[in-house]
Amino acid sequence: MTESVFIAICGRPEHISDYIFASVNEILYQRKVHDQKFFALNKINNQSYHLAQLKNTNEYLQKITTQTSQWIFEQQLDSFIVKLFSVRTNQVLEQWCFKIMNHNKKLNQYSDKFQQKYKK
């Protein structure tokens, strides 16, 4: 069974994309997707995170978070999903659903509809 984690985040687009960047790195570290020796502890917005020191991983994540920031700024993005798949079975092992609220939108508790939409 897939474990789903729902996270509501609110703030400026650049802070939200920084948080997503750091969170994905932390997921990669905690789940040992890459060997932990390839991570270093760094601060983003005064919080410490394990960030990958792998060129391809960082370039990929920077590309995604730059685009994410633009979509948030343009109010075209209200959620961001990260899924971890099994290499052997291609089955989703875990997923994180980030509910995004723009800085100038009132933060409301995310609805059951949002949770049900991404439970699969």
TrEMBL record:
Main location: nucleus
Coiled-coil segments on the chain, per record: none
Claim: Cell division is one of the keywords in the record: yes
Listed Pfam families: HORMA
Cellular localization per UniProt: Nucleus
Residue ranges constituting the HORMA domain according to the UniProt record: 10-120
UniProt keyword terms in alphabetical order: Cell cycle, Cell division, Mitosis, Nucleus
InterPro entries associated with the record: HORMA_dom (IPR003511), HORMA_dom_sf (IPR036570), Mad2-like (IPR045091)
Family as reported in the entry's similarity comment: Belongs to the MAD2 family.
Protein name stated in the entry: Mitotic_arrest deficient 2 like 1 S homeolog
Species of origin: Hexamita inflata
